Amino acid sequence: MGTNPQRDIVLNINGTEHRLSVDVRTTLLDLLRERLALTGTKKGCDHGLCGACTVALDGERIVSCLALAVSVDGSAVTTIEGIADGEVLDPVQQAFLDHDGFQCGYCTPGQISSAHAMLREHARGDLSAASFEGDRRAALQGRPALTESEIRERLAGNICRCGAYSNIVDAVAAAAEATSQ
After folding, report:
1. 3-state secondary structure the chain
2. Distance, CA of 135 to CA of 154 (rounded, Å)
3. In the predicted model, is pLDDT for residue 67 greater than 90?
4. Among 55, 58, 119, 131, which residue's Cβ finds the most Cβ atoms within 10 Å?
């Protein structure tokens, strides 16, 4: 058989530029975990269904197990390791601690990464399916309230096997409140 095709890429990961030669079949998740030792991002289902591998790509959340590393060449990636400001936790991270938004903790990095990006999406006025359940006029103006239903809908792609959803929703609501002040 032939050799594995390689390609040179550049990624800005958590504020640090990385120049890498990667096999074109390598997923972003495997690059992060296996080559760069950023193991906070978890491999759950490896099929894009559980959200454990959620990271932000140029500010937008993606499941990194479905993204080939070569397809994101030149992008900025933020993993769970890049959310805090040094030793100072991000409001989402602090809220997860304060509201016990985890049990076994396996899904927590993906939940936090997803919630972190979701709060930015909500702040800029992005809508979800739940946005139209309440005040339709507010939804059409891009200002849906961040209700429990809205949070659950927006984080539906992140699965928690332990069922800590009520605490996760409380944590995200508290983080939203903390970041809006």
Report:
1. CCCCCEEEEEEEECCEEEEEEEECCCEHHHHHHHHCCCCCCCCCCCCCCCCCCEEEECCEEEECCCCEHHHHCCCEEECHHHCCECCECCHHHHHHHHCCCCCCCCCHHHHHHHHHHHHHHHHCCCCCHHHHCCCHHHHHCCCCCCCHHHHHHHCCCCCCCCCCHHHHHHHHHHHHHHHHC
2. 17
3. yes
4. 55
Answer whether residue 129 shows pLDDT above 60. yes
pLDDT digit string (tens) for 31-44?
999 999 999 999 99
59 vs 135, residue with greater confidence = 59
Domains with residue ranges and CATH for the chain: 6-82 (3.10.20.30), 91-180 (1.10.150.120)
Phi/psi zone of residue 12: left (φ > 0), alpha (ψ -120 to 50 degrees), beta?
beta
Do the beta carbons of residue 70 and residue 24 sit within 8 Å?
yes
Read off the pLDDT of each residue in 90-110 and give the average, rounded to a whole number: 95
